[in-house]
Amino acid sequence: MIFIISIGQIKILDHLKKELKDRFNSRVEIEGSMEKPDYAFNPARKQHLAPAILEKISKIKLDGIKLGVADVDLYDRGLNFVFGEASPLTRTALISLTRLRPEYYGLAENEALFKERAAKEAVHELGHVFGLPHCSDPECVMHFSNSLWDTDKKNSFFCSLCKKKLKKLRFGR
Ligand code: ZN
Ligand code: ZN
User: Fold this and answer.
1) Identified catalytic residue from 19, 85, 121, 125
2) What is the 158 CA–ligand 2 centroid distance (Å)?
3) Disulfide engineering: 3 pairs with which of 31, 45, 46, 61, CB 3.0-4.6 Å?
4) Beta carbons of 17 and 79 less than 8 angstroms apart
């Protein structure tokens, strides 16, 4: 079971639910919401510390994998920003929508593109939760995204190799 948790007000959760259901062939529920993560805010950077939010999500008592969806800019120590993070140990993932909108870069709004990017990031981070490493195939959803250019180049599906690995990790065969 995968639980989607909105952090603050998030609009595209139904879309993510459908995509995750398809990709992981698993039940997906939108399960409650968390307050805006002011505790993780760094005023000097005007960004939120991703691991602090991830830890908070991991404390929520739900029997399954948890994906938090936030709309604040995330960073981690030593990194300018992160699109998302995952912890296989606590079976928790987090993505940020902030840098996925074309408007963030001064470009015209594009809802379809935005939703597609969000699905890719969500599938990618949940792939890590299941134990998948990064993939060298630039079109595979598990390819590392250093920039949105990488995100746009890959699709939201696992390559055949990652698909096999995922099956083995989840079901032991
Ligand atoms: Zn990754
Ligand atoms: Zn792959």
Assistant:
1) 125
2) 5
3) 31
4) no
